[in-house]
Write a structure and sequence with these properties.
The protein is of the alpha/beta class. Helix content is 45%, strand content 15%. The chain has 3 domains: 238 residues, Endonuclease Chain A (Endonuclease, Chain A), CATH 3.30.870.10; 197 residues, Rossmann fold; 258 residues, P-loop containing nucleotide triphosphate hydrolases (Rossmann fold, 3-Layer(aba) Sandwich), CATH 3.40.50.
Length: 760
């Protein structure tokens, strides 16, 4: 490496201020050698800081350094040698972690000296202190030898191994390569022999000093300062000098060393990737459980696992829709297998669609024996009963591997609950969309659940208006309300490129005269349940809930939404030439937000979804399909949507939980929902990344009637409006056109004297 890859001065001369700086010699030598012997007058570890890039490469490639120095040292270096002699404990350093090593060596702080102490303990850095025998002078020689086990290059001259000598002084050294000529080879061998004689203790011209006889060479104004102050001031001096204009030759050397480190890091990354790919392929070929992608889990997915482990394998992961909650939890199961040799899991999901998706994901992980308890496979329950019997007779945890997937509805039944609860406690319970566990039928079962390993998954862990149930669910998963085991927000996901950016366009929709009369009547009845200022509730909660649903139904069914929807479609078609990859959330006519899916379809809901679907078809015959609970060919329909054969999907709730539609680019929210879970999941659905999608677009139809400030229900209405603006604020705050989105609602905020930013 010294001969083939390093760059040396053609004539062997290195002179400060010339094209070939003394610094260049040391930098090239360290970058390409695996041993370095130095016989010096003065030594300072500041030189290692200056040469941090090349010295990190030297250590990374297995380099060993031996020093023979005189007894004059800085206080910091003297303390380093003394602490090493005293055997004081130092932390371990991974010398294969080039990036961390480089960062450690680039700042001369306590961590830096810990690293040098570690190198000395490991025998990678050896130092001998000498002075002339029987004389009062000092050893002042400056020479050394680099070696790569094949070739050697030596130097001699005026330059000490210190920052001052390398950066500030006017110095000169001569270098000799053993491959250049027989004379140079002779010079190299002579220096190598001389060093070996002194280092081995055979040279009688010098005497060897114990470390406690080292003298500290300090400036007059420094002796009263402690080590921390000395290091900080020394670091400041170095930073100031590096900030100043460096000689061109010095800057060139440092830039080259930095480039060589970057090359080594890239080589290291490629080697690690190749090794990881090879190991992953081996698992795939052998049918062993494995992560679906050779690069492994993302950093935040691994961080979720680590947080879960720290909390005794219990946890609730609050992760934005589209960030891979399924992969994150199955990675925890995979790591149980890799550490303990078995995998056993029970997975709860809210819908049959999600049951199928989880089954597919388990298959991608290489998990076998996946049982799905549902109405689709009545015989599966019998097979799980047999599995439970085998588990009760097992002699080892490793005897059986399995994953059981079922719906919350099945789990809430006495028979299935008793069956699944008979499995051993080391089974991992994964609850997808875990806010569903807050339902009364499931909540009462939580104290009896046997499984001690638990993971709850949700983008929105809290059920609206149900803090007591939310707290119980959090406690079940070993965390406190609002203090989840792991959180990965939508802002983090967008900023880090895991979800795509989006633009948000709210559209104010007015009620017609008849709707306004109905709305005012309901609002006045709501106002009577509150104090005059609208802050204190004085009435019956059940009556209030009925009135709020009536009010919301009027907003949901506002006739003006259809005209606004029609305008959005027309403008999009004119802009793009088609309506491909569009999701439409249709308003619900009956008890909005009362069900979990579109199964509660009555005539009014059917009329609404048909009318919005017809508006899509009216745009040049655009292909559109309804996605509801009764849709039979869901997988084929989603595939047709992704391929563009079906351009638009209209739905009410079936796209709320767990349905993957990464190709979607435009979402139109015609349903005004104040439920945070619904609007967060709907937004996340449109933000999933796709190779052909650069930016998502969301249009939101917002109905906020303007009640006159003189009306008796104004204060109550103002509070209700403030709550409904939370969705708009949340959507706008993360969008690429935040100011435009906010300005659209200025008329409403001014009328009710509200600020969108109070919801931020």
């Amino acid at each position: 490496m010294l001969k083939e890859h390093a760059e040396w001065a053609p004539d062997g001369f290195y002179i400060s201020g010339s094209e070939w700086e003394p610094l260049a010699f040391f930098s090239e030598g360290l970058s390409h050698a695996n041993s370095f012997d130095l016989l010096l007058g003065f030594f300072s570890s500041s030189a290692i800081e200056v040469l941090s890039d090349s010295f990190a490469l030297f250590l990374y490639r297995g380099g060993n350094m031996r020093l023979v120095i005189n007894n004059l040292l800085s206080e910091a270096d003297r303390e380093l040698l003394l602490s090493t002699q005293r055997g004081e404990g130092v932390p371990e350093f991974d010398l294969r972690n080039l990036r961390a090593l480089r960062e450690t060596l680039s700042r001369r702080d306590t961590h830096f000296f810990d690293c040098l102490a570690f190198l000395m303990r490991a025998g990678r850095l050896e130092i001998k202190v000498v002075k002339p025998s029987g004389k009062t002078g000092i050893v002042h020689t400056k020479c050394g030898v680099f070696s790569d086990k094949i070739h050697k290059i030596s130097f001699s001259g005026s330059c000490n191994f210190s920052k001052t000598a390398l950066i500030d002084n006017q110095e000169q050294i001569n270098a000799f390569c053993d491959w250049e000529s027989s004379l140079d080879n002779l010079r190299v061998q002579r220096l190598a022999t001389t060093f070996e004689s002194i280092f081995s203790g055979e040279d009688e011209s010098v005497c060897y000093l114990p470390v406690d006889q080292l003298r500290a060479q300090l400036a007059d104004d420094w002796p009263h300062k402690d080590m921390e102050t000395l290091l900080k001031e020394g670091e400041q001096l170095i930073e100031e000098r590096f900030a100043a204009d460096l000689r061109p030759g010095v800057r060139k050397v440092l830039e080259r060393a930095k480039h060589q480190v970057h090359q080594a890091l890239e080589e290291q990354r490629q080697e690690a990737e190749a090794e990881k790919q090879q190991q992953w392929q081996h698992k795939v070929d052998c049918g062993l459980p494995h992560f679906p992608y050779p690069q492994g889990p993302r950093d935040y997915q691994q961080a979720a696992h680590d947080a879960w482990k720290k909390r005794e394998e219990k946890g609730l992961f609050a992760m934005a829709t589209g960030t891979g909650k399924t992969l994150t939890s199955l990675n925890c199961l995979l790591q149980i297998y890799e550490q303990r040799g078995y995998y056993k899991a029970i997975i709860l999901v809210p819908t049959l669609t999600l049951l199928t998706q989880w089954q597919e994901e388990c298959t991608r992980f290489g998990f076998e024996r996946v049982y799905c308890i549902s109405s689709r496979d009545p015989d599966c329950e019998r097979r799980v009963e047999n599995l439970a019997l085998l588990e009760s007779m097992r002699r080892s945890r490793k005897d059986h591997n399995y994953v059981i997937i079922t719906t919350y509805r099945s789990f809430g039944g006495d028979r299935v609950f008793a069956l699944l609860n008979s499995f051993p406690k080391e089974v991992l319970l994964i609850a997808d969309e875990c806010h569903n566990m807050g339902a009364e039928s499931l909540l009462k079962r939580l104290p009896r659940v046997n499984m001690s390993r638990r993971i709850g998954l949700s983008a929105t862990p809290e059920r609206q208006f149900d803090d007591e149930a939310n707290a119980e669910v959090c406690d079940f998963f070993g965390c406190a309300l609002h203090d989840y085991t792991f959180t990965f927000t939508m802002r983090e996901a967008i900023d880090q490129g895991f979800l795509c950016k989006y633009e948000y366009y709210p559209h104010l929709v007015e009620l017609n005269a008849d709707e306004m009369v109905q709305y005012t009547q309901v609002s006045e009845r709501i106002a009577r349940l509150y104090s005059a200022d609208g802050e204190s509730f004085l009435g019956n909660k059940d009556v209030l809930m009925v009135l709020l649903l009536q009010r919301k139904r009027i907003i949901h069914k506002a006739s003006g939404k259809l005209a606004a929807f029609r305008q959005i479609l027309r403008e999009r078609y004119e802009q793009k030439g088609d309506l491909k990859y569009t999701l439409v959330y249709v308003p619900e006519g009956v008890a909005p937000e009362s069900g979990e899916n579109d199964g509660d379809v009555d005539e009014e809901n059917l009329r609404l979804i048909n009318s919005f679907t017809a508006e899509v078809q009216a745009v040049n015959g655009t292909s559109v399909r309804q996605f509801t609970a009764s849709t039979q060919d869901r997988e084929q329909l989603l595939n047709d949507f992704a391929e563009g054969r079906v351009q638009v999907l209209t739905s009410m709730k079936c796209l709320d939980e767990g349905v993957d539609v990464p190709r979607s680019e435009l979402a139109i929210f015609c349903a005004s929902t104040g439920n945070p879970r619904q609007f967060i999941q709907r937004r996340g659905r449109i933000l999933r990344r796709h190779p052909d999608k650069e930016m998502a677009c969301i249009h939101d139809l917002v109905v906020i009637p303007l009640i006159d400030s003189g009306e008796g229900n104004y204060n109550v209405e103002r509070n209700l409006v403030r709550n409904e603006l939370k969705r708009v604020c949340d959507f706008a705050m993360l969008s690429e056109n935040m100011i435009t989105a906010y300005s659209t609602l200025q008329r409403v905020t001014q009328h009710y004297e509200l600020s969108l930013f109070e919801n931020a």
